[in-house]
Protein: Pentapeptide repeat-containing protein
Organism: Streptomyces tendae
Amino acid sequence: MVRGAAGDAKVRAARRPELRLPALERYDGGGLEPDGDYDGLEFDGADLAGQDGGGARFMDCALRGCALDEARLSRARVLDSVLSGVRGVGTDLARATLRDVELTDARLGGTQLHGASLERVVVRGGKIDFLNLRAAVLKDVVFEGCVLVEPDFGGARLERVEFADCTLKGVDLSGAVLKDVDLRRASSLEIARGVDRLSGAVISTGQLLDLAPFLAAELGIAVEG
């Protein structure tokens, strides 16, 4: 059942990552390698566009201001790491694992995260267009102060996921399964598909009124007068 902002509405809060990066070594710019192992490195302004790091592991790393256009990072594991100011179009992170990660002020478009696993991840600030999270698993994920344009959560599983001060445009929830998902603090909520999948989410009274026409259409209710 979709719950409004009543006082008895309870939703478990997401657990946030607790990052304490060690002293980092500067990335030497030698290029990513498939199944590479990157530990304790700082990628500062690195141009990783078009590079193939499929299956690579990034542990205790910081990527700051990096270009990720068409970077191939499918099945990559990004652990205990910070990504700040990264930018790119068509970054491939399909079936990747992101755990204990902070992503801040990103400017991304068409990022592929379908089939990915996100756990204890914070996405703060920035703008991400056409984010593909189909069939992904999100657990303890916080979207904070960011703009998501047409994010696709089709068939995804969301548990303890929060949207705070976010603008959500054209969200696709088709086939998604939600549990303890808190949408009450989203500054703008526009659901294009899958409004029937909101069971397991908590929304505000104002959001319920905004979504009423879509809910009525989904239930086949004619509203007149």
Q: What stands out?
A: The first strand starts at residue 25 and ends at 26. The helical segments are 205-219. The mean pLDDT is 93. The first helix runs from residue 205 to 219.
